[in-house]
């Protein structure tokens, strides 16, 4: 595990974008695992800037980590809509190569199997992650066991209230989500986790300065051989 601390989230985003550029330029069919959340916005902004200057995504496949159950892709708070707005509508990725779990699927179990099959056919070269204040990655919430495959998860109270900032009110936040499991995440060749700001300092210290525990899902990344943790001064402040 390699930890890099930057002065600002935007400098960190530039660095993370350079890692994506390297994958795009070195692979014939690069597979990018993508994340949502406030943290990754400066990074996507920079990727869009690079795309305007010619960075080519036409041969890339993208796989998003998670989606809320019950939200269609055009629902403004869906993760699919977030990705369209922040990235997909600004780059030349082929629509058929974009994959986001279908939270509105009538048969969610079948949807989880379908998504695992997509992951199996497209091994992830680089997985981008944020981290929840409770240590979740994707929507793999703290628990005494963690699930390896794509699954439906009941969101924790903490996650619902933390994500309420993107909705009109907390009552509108879906109670469930579909998420890639920890095995798919840990199978990525390289993982890049970003976390910024004071509110992430405590969980960063626990996840990467302490032991590996299923009640801190991000701590699992300590077991991966090529993970880069990208922080700013604030999120790094409690790490020894
Ligand atoms: C959501 C996503 C996570 C993300 C987290 C952090 O819960 N499911 O993948 O890491 O938000 O969000 P933020 O970057 O807004 O703090």
Structure report:
Helix content is 30%, strand content 18%. The chain has 240 residues and is an alpha/beta fold. The protein has a single domain, classed as Rossmann fold (3-Layer(aba) Sandwich), CATH 3.40.50. The strands form 2 sheets. The protein has a 7-stranded parallel β-sheet, sandwiched between helices. A 3-stranded antiparallel β-sheet has the order 4-8-7, with helices on one face. α1 crosses α2. The longest helix is centred in the first third of the chain and has 18 residues. The model has no long low-confidence stretch (mean pLDDT 97). It binds 2-amino-2-deoxy-6-O-phosphono-alpha-D-glucopyranose (GLP). The site of 2-amino-2-deoxy-6-O-phosphono-alpha-D-glucopyranose has 14 residues, from α5.
Spell out the key features of this protein:
single chain, 240 residues, alpha/beta, Rossmann fold, 7-stranded parallel sheet, 3-stranded antiparallel sheet, 7 helices, 30% helix, 18% strand, globular, binds 2-amino-2-deoxy-6-O-phosphono-alpha-D-glucopyranose
């Amino acid at each position: 595990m390699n930890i890099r601390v930057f002065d600002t989230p935007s400098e960190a985003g530039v660095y993370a974008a350079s890692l994506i550029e390297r994958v795009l330029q070195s692979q014939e069919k690069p597979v990018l695992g993508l994340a949502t959340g406030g943290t990754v916005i400066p990074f996507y902004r920079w990727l869009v800037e690079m795309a305007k200057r010619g960075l080519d995504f036409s041969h890339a496949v993208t796989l998003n980590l998670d989606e809320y159950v019950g939200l269609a892709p055009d629902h403004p708070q869906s993760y699919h809509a977030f990705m369209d707005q922040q990235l997909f509508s600004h780059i030349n990725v082929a629509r058929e190569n974009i994959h986001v779990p279908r939270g509105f699927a009538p048969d969610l179990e079948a949807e989880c199997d379908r998504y695992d099959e997509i992951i199996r056919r497209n091994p992830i070269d680089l997985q981008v992650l944020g981290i929840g204040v409770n240590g979740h990655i994707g929507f793999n919430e703290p628990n005494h066991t963690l699930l390896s495959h794509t699954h439906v998860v009941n969101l924790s109270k903490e996650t619902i209230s933390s994500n309420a900032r993107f909705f009109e009110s907390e009552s509108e936040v879906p109670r469930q989500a579909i998420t890639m499991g920890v095995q798919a995440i840990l199978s990525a060749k390289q993982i890049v986790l970003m976390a910024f700001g004071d509110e992430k300092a405590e969980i960063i210290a626990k996840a990467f300065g302490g032991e590996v525990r299923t009640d801190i899902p991000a701590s699992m990344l300590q077991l991966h051989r090529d993970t880069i943790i990208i922080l700013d001064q604030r999120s790094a402040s409690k790490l020894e």
